Amino acid sequence: MSALSLLGQRQQSLLTTLLHHREGLTIEELSSRLAISRNAVNQHLASLGESGFTQSTLLESTGGRPSRVYTLTPSGLELFQRQYALLAKLLLAWTNQHMGEQALESCLTDLGQQMASEYESRLAKHASQAGKLREVAAILSELGYDAHVVQTPEQRLEIIANNCVFQALAQQCEGFCTLDLSFLAALLKAKIEHKECIVRNGNRCCFRIADSAN
């Protein structure tokens, strides 16, 4: 189910109308095209604006008062169907075919490290390993992994992720989990064990810092 489909029918129609008129439309023009009152258009625009889906701009007029036109924001445009997953699959297949598994693994490792560099400052606030792990779990949840930290009967801390945000890509490429492992290793400055994997028929993904002996 798309995010657009979760909105009311009138709001979907309004957003679609703005998609078809990227130069922007006034309230009067929207009212005419949607066959609803100006007041109703105002109410919908207020709600959509608060959600960050629409924006307004004043256009200077040579013959009278400036007019306010409404357009979609980047977030509003993202409500409509995109094919990022398809592009990612094609790029992954091309890289694997033309550059080989080793080059792909190196690429995924580098990407994981680049991702980690965006969040390293947040871990610097924590002195304990437990604090760092909980911060990493929070970061993963922000990225869509639905993650949390658990303590095992052996008093080991593990990060549990209930969602694999790259599942379709990981199913296509067996080594894709390198990205997650590189990301976590760079954040925690440690080798990471992948104890359970959703793609490998696990019920969840489970990560923990490897024993120093390993």
UniProtKB/TrEMBL annotation:
Residue ranges annotated for the Helix-turn-helix type domain, each copy included: 10-64
Protein name: Predicted transcriptional regulator, ArsR family
Organism taxonomic ancestry: Bacteria, Pseudomonadati, Pseudomonadota, Betaproteobacteria, Nitrosomonadales
SUPFAM superfamilies documented for this protein: Winged helix' DNA-binding domain
Gene3D superfamilies the UniProt entry points to: Winged helix-like DNA-binding domain superfamily/Winged helix DNA-binding domain
One GO term of the biological process aspect: regulation of DNA-templated transcription
Pfam families, A to Z: HTH_11
Superkingdom, natural source: Bacteria
InterPro entries in the cross-refs: ArsR-like_HTH, HTH_11, WH-like_DNA-bd_sf, WH_DNA-bd_sf
